[in-house]
Design brief:
By secondary structure, the protein is mainly beta. 0% of the residues lie in helices and 53% in strands. Strands 2, 4, 5, 6, 9, 10 and 11 form a seven-stranded mixed beta sheet that branches. A hairpin with a 4-residue loop joins strand 7 and strand 8. The radius of gyration is 13 Å and the shape is globular.
Length: 115
């Protein structure tokens, strides 16, 4: 199982970024996928999750209305569109898959929101 995130960067408050997570080594369309984030000095926190076909989506209260999770099963890719970014969104963002009862993580992509 391999998960590779991309799309992070430095953005001003109020700006937008789109993160991607490309999956391989398992049947992507069969698994629930999630985004997590970890700010420096804090525990990793769940951000959003999406079911296999994308029919059921959930968000943490802190990002609801600003972030949109989606997936393209034909491309084995999950996305996180982040709008209205705030300094408190600064963190390393990770994608997660629980495959065969084990959690897998990508290497993470840094998102920094600062003026």
């Amino acid at each position: 199982v391999q998960l590779v995130e991309s799309g992070g960067g430095l953005v001003q408050p109020g700006g937008s970024l789109r993160l991607s997570c490309v999956a391989s080594g398992f049947t992507f369309s069969n698994y629930f996928m999630s985004w997590y984030r970890q700010a420096r000095g804090k525990e990793r926190e769940w951000v959003a999750g999406i079911t296999r076909a994308g029919g059921n989506i959930n968000y943490a209260d802190s990002v609801k209305g600003r972030f949109t999770i989606s997936r393209d099963n034909a491309k084995n890719t999950m996305y996180l569109q982040m709008n209205g970014l705030k300094p408190e969104d600064t963190a390393v963002y990770y994608c997660n898959a629980r495959v065969w009862g084990q959690d897998y993580w990508g290497q993470g992509t840094q998102v920094t929101v600062s003026s």
